[in-house]
Amino acid sequence: TALAQIDTALGPQLNIGHRGASAYAPEHTFYAYDLAMEMDVDMLECDLFLTKDEVLICIHDSTVDRTSDGSGRVQDFTLDELRALDFGSWFGIKFSSAKIVPFEEQLDCYLDHNPLMRFHVETKDSAQGRAEAVLVEVLARKGLLDTGDIQTSTIVMQSFDASSLKRIKQLSELPTAFLFARRTSFELLQWVASGNGPDYIDAFAPNSAAIFNDPTSVQRFHANGHDVHTWTVNERTQMDYLLALGVDAIFTNNPDILRAAIDDK
Ligand code: G3P
Ligand code: CA
After folding, report:
1. What GO MF terms are annotated (predicted)?
2. What's the gap in Å between 143 CA and the centre of ligand 2?
């Protein structure tokens, strides 16, 4: 069975706080990131958009409607305008002081706290084509462009858009993870095995359903030299199963549950 083929992770299995500890505090706020740190994550996940004045900020949606008291597209706000919004009350009134987090402030805050903290960074507005260039400028300024391979690098880039990862690799040597949900692992494995698979992808990042549908894909991705980072897994039984299959990293809204699962393995 698939479970008989255990322990194929290529290195330590990583606990990635998805939008912070977003089960317990409003996503992409310092409340959620602080909690994730307290829960001993290895990486913080961050979704990035550019503001009107070309500042990278941490937010998942292309609009502010769901997670703030404002309304409209992120790209139509300046950073100062976003700073005036409340990004916490939607989750609970005690979080009403939560503000937008610029990506640089996230990096500064948590690297200052723990120089070994790592960041799994998703370019969300790659269609605009500027996010990658701004990102590389920011990381270059901070000396974070050349910090190791995918198992050690402070920054790992992720995207559903392969062309975004390609742009990143043209601009830097940052490690990359290709997110996918609808495509099956099997199709992607065939793509890689055909020799036509791209050389700008270091890890595959399937949603967990893709692995449940095709559990042996983990070993086959490994055999092709790719790590496997899966998302978004919040239940202990699913975590235990995926860790036993040998995934290299799990994104979770509940980093406390995943920490216990990794420690108990
Ligand atoms: O980045 C992993 C996972 O977050 C991908 O889906 O929509 O939550 O960004 P989404
Ligand atoms: Ca994401």
Report:
1. phosphoric diester hydrolase activity
2. 24
Rg (C-alpha) for the chain, rounded Å, is 18
In a domain, 79, yes or no: no
Judge if pTM exceeds 0.90: yes
Q: What is the sign of the dihedral through the CA atoms of 109, 157, 64 and 32?
A: negative
Quick one: which of 50, 47, 198, 73 has its CA closest to 129? 50
CATH number at residue 138: 3.20.20.190
Within a domain: 113: yes
Pocket of ligand 1, beta carbon within 6 A: 18, 45, 47, 60, 122, 158, 179, 231-232, 251
Distance in Å, CA 140 to ligand 2 centroid: 23
For residue 213, is it within any domain? yes
Domain count within the chain: 1
Quick check: is 203 in a domain? yes
- From the CA of 222, how far away is ligand 2's center (Å)? 22
ipTM of the complex in this document = 0.98
- Among 14, 16, 46, 122, name the best residue to mutate to test ligand 1's pocket (greatest count of ligand atoms within 8 A of Cβ): 122
The question of whether 229 is a catalytic residue gets the answer: no
C-alpha distance from residue 12 to each of 15, 122, 250 (Å):
10, 22, 11
Over the stretch 51-77, which tens digit does the pLDDT of each residue have? 999 999 999 999 999 999 999 999 999
